[in-house]
Give the backbone structure.
Amino acid sequence: PAPAPAPTAVSVGLALSGEEAFLRRQRLAPGGQRDLPPPVAAAVSQPQHLSRVVVLDNIAALDANTSAVRALALQACKPHGEVRACVVHEGSSHLRVFVEYEESQMASEAVNALDGTMLAEEEISASLYPEPMYRAGSLDL
């Protein structure tokens, strides 16, 4: 049998989507499908991990006072960095709070600190939200 070809060094970007990484592995694997189409461009041009926007879910019921919810969210979020904006959005079944930080690192720190914590007797969910969607007013993802 012929010796196996030596592996080749490949530069791997860390900001790949799951689809992009899968397709790259398929193309680079021995006997891989080199004729696979290039990955489809993501709808959001900025990687989510660079977002400066945090969304807080399960923070309050629809009938809650939105100014009180905003104050509660700001109290929880301000220790993690400079907050540029705080928007309470009334979704179809619950309130969502969008907090925009000055820098993406601050937003990531807030997500790590707040996700799964208790706030006003509710376990909240904190995650990064795509900035282009936030700026476009698409707040019901």
Q: What stands out?
A: Residues 9-13, 39-46 have pLDDT under 50 and may be disordered. The helical segments are 18-28, 66-77, 104-114, 131-135. Residues 10 and 23 are 14 Å apart (CA to CA). The radius of gyration is 21 Å.
